[in-house]
């Protein structure tokens, strides 16, 4: 996904107008409803994807992959889910974990490339909190991002990720302990 995303107005959550026409049931309204959902939810989904993956390019790929799958089944999802945004977040977390499991294996090359690829420096790469967050396992990172970045409650996180509230609490506890350990003096000063 190479196109720049237009700036969207800040919205607390993707609910509202896209739900209005959801009950009509015809194909055109389902497409319009999905388009409106994407328009409203995209900025939040991109932020969530960036926090999950660690960089904006992988985030855009993750969001696009999930929205393609969701778009194909939108009318059914919109009818059967009380909160389609929670469904999309869960799909993003699951897709990210699946992708991470597939790609974490070592990839061997027969020959080195002639020229190394020019990499652009991510401005958050040297940020200690961001680096510590990237070092967390995907499920713990998802819980931390949803709780402290998106501001969801434990119950909303459990629903979004399809796990129990107890699992949310334990994953958050483990993640915060790992962040405190990794950040050391930064965490003790209350800056984190």
From TrEMBL:
InterPro entries to which the protein is assigned, alphabetical: PhyR_sigma2, RNA_pol_sigma-70-like, RNA_pol_sigma-70_dom, RNA_pol_sigma-E_actinobac, RNA_pol_sigma70_r4_t2, RNA_pol_sigma_r2, RNA_pol_sigma_r3/r4-like, Tscrpt_reg_LuxR_C
Top-rank taxon, per record: Bacteria
Keyword Secreted assigned: no
Keyword line: DNA-binding, Sigma factor, Transcription, Transcription regulation
HTH luxR-type domain sequence ranges: 133-189
SUPFAM superfamilies per record: Sigma2 domain of RNA polymerase sigma factors, Sigma3 and sigma4 domains of RNA polymerase sigma factors
Region (Disordered): 1-25
Protein name per Swiss-Prot or TrEMBL: SigE family RNA polymerase sigma factor
